[in-house]
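Re: that chain you flagged

S.,

Sorry for the slow reply, it's been a week of failed gels. I finally had a moment to sit down with the sequence you sent. For the record, here it is as I used it:
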Amino acid sequence: MKADLSNIKNIIFDMGRVLLNLDFDASIKAFQKLGSKGEVLDHKNAYADPVFYNFEVGEITPAEFRAGIRRLLNNEELTDKQIDDAWYAMLLDIPGYRVKKVQELKKNYNIYLFSNTNQIHIDRLLIEFKAAHGIDFPDLFKAVYYSHEIHDRKPEISSFEKVIVLSGVKPEETLFVDDLEKNVLAAQKAGLKTLWLKQNMEMAELF
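Prediction finished late last night. Pasting the structure tokens below so you have them in one place:
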């Protein structure tokens, strides 16, 4: 199955599990090793505490996020690096074949990125991507929109409306690609055309 690109001029990619391989459990396990007790950071209730949401929409600083993690884990002795390493553990790699596919698409389409993310993740990702691929990650796109910078996140319809305004795209000429159905449904309500990247589907094979 190939993506329907008829009348499409712009493509907005999600990052996690579309471009970037993720393992949410890796951070859960890393936090548990640092002192998590009870159900605060177990598999059922992972990331339910408001500190995670607030960090993702840029309402708190990295320092405030780390303080929140120390509170959650009941461990005031944790260093910034221990917290950052555990939090970053979920981010794996962006394979070269996906990078090449985005570069190919960029020749014929305006390519954008819209990701629910946070400053700690992005700061390190940019460094590791440059080391792995020899190019700057934002250079793959016409523009990048991170939730912590636009102070809004998927699946809020307002977040898509904000990206549409900031990018200047026409929704009917724009394809949004995401791995979560709730994000795809919200994007449709904002007028975007969509592609739901279901489990076991590979972005690079659909274009």
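What I noticed first: The mean pLDDT is 93.

Talk soon,
D.
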